[in-house]
Amino acid sequence: MTNNILKKSALDKLEKLGLTQEEVLSLFDEEVEVEEPTEKKSWQQLVMEEHLGYYNERYGTSYSFEEYYDAVVNKKIKVHYEWKTLLGIKDG
Predict the structure, then answer these.
(1) Whole-prediction pTM
(2) C-alpha angle 23/24/26, rounded to 5°?
(3) What is the pLDDT of residues 23-81, one digit of tens each?
(4) What is the secondary structure of 3-69 as a DSSP string?
(5) CA distances from 18 to 12, 22, 38, 74 (A)
(6) What does the buried/exposed string (b/e) look like for 28-54 if buried means 16 or more CB atoms within 10 Å of the residue's CB?
(7) Chain segment 68-85, per-residue pLDDT in tens
(8) What is the residue extent of each domain of the chain?
């Protein structure tokens, strides 16, 4: 659906609720910007991302988070922190 079709559909629905097009359109500027949803990260991921940065710097690697996570979980690389406890896989 194009923006015009969606806009017309929304205006029709609001008109059924008793609002005129002028009333609805007066609430908005010419361009209505919709914010993109931001990605939410857990504190555990943020901690691992910080360690990833240190790891890449120390060893001259360029792992992405997904590559690093996979390597840690599959024991391809060793880390100094208890990642299983961090992720809640085992009790500390």
Answers:
(1) 0.55
(2) 65
(3) 777 766 656 555 666 778 888 889 999 999 999 999 999 999 999 999 999 999 999 88
(4) HHHHHHHHHHHHHHTT--HHHHHTTS-SS---PPPPPP--HHHHHHHHHHHHHHHHHT----HHHHH
(5) 10, 12, 34, 60
(6) eeeeeeeeeeeeeeeeeeeebeebbee
(7) 999 999 999 999 888 888
(8) 1-29, 43-86
Question: Tokens in use for 6?
Answer: 């969606």
Record the tokens describing residue 32, joined without a space: 């209505």
Query: Strand, coil or helix: what is 71?
Result: helix
